[in-house]
Predict the 3D structure of the following.
Amino acid sequence: MRIRVLGSAAGGGFPQWNCGCPNCRGVREAVIAATPRTQESVAVSADGEAWFLLNASPEIRQQIESFPPLHPRRPRHSPIQGIVLTNGDLDHCLGLLSLRESHPLVVYATERVRRGFTEGNVLYRTLQRFSEQVTWRDLKPGREDALLRQDGAPSGLALEAVALPGKLPIHLEGQAPPDPEDNIGLRLREVRTGRVLAYLPAVAAVTGAVREALEGADCVFFDGTFWSSDELPALALGPKRAEEMAHLPVGGPGGSLEALAGLGASRRILIHVNNTNPLLRDDSPERAAARARGWEVARDGMDIDL
Ligand code: MLT
Ligand code: MN
Ligand code: ZN
């Protein structure tokens, strides 16, 4: 399985347009050891020809351009066979509206995420320019589905969704009761080799379901949004603690480094990293602590051959 990190930052990217925190200022002025990052999205393929995107970030155009295997091979064409959504957050979905140039799209999502994006959303009409412009394929937690190419041929990948502790996107809070299918993790299995990628970019707590989603995976991508619970309040950037935003912090007692000690995967990668996170600094003690536990921090352009 080929895996390419197109974007590795949380919502807002790094640096974020309205942020003057030490990390954002430092990376703009090139005075810290850190690299800019676009918002989270990953491309996967079994054969290097047919690609699937995990999430559609607001920076999707630039991300597609950054990776030649995603470029068209003919006057109207895309190697992107489908897009899988892990939740309805705008940093995961807004890119769909950018893919509006009358190209048929296949989107895999839970019914909850599909309805959250399509219902009452007048902008969705831009993806209804012709019948079947978007084909939605429902993901049901606990069921494995073959990922098909748009011509109906097998892609060599199978996908299982796992319901994870998370939350509704901010713009839908109070509009619908929370539901287990608001936020999922993905287990992608390459049929030929049996190798498994577990992709969990938003995780509010390490539960039994989270452990099952990670079980036996060869490569794990995990929520790396915040290092500490009070990261935003401590920088006077907002009142919310990490847990209130449904992101388990990476560091500290009960954080994901501690909770996931003993994970067997040979590659363990933190993704959806918020611009305030000290993990973004290549020389920070937090980065060293993650490395000591066997964790890498995702960066844009990272390639993995699984
Ligand atoms: C999140 O990951 O918590 C959300 O993307 C936050 C947001 O939508 O701003
Ligand atoms: Mn996000
Ligand atoms: Zn910042």
In short: DSSP finds eight helices and 14 strands in the chain. The helical segments are 22-28, 60-65, 90-98, 111-118, 208-214, 231-234, 256-259, 285-292. The longest helix spans residues 90-98.
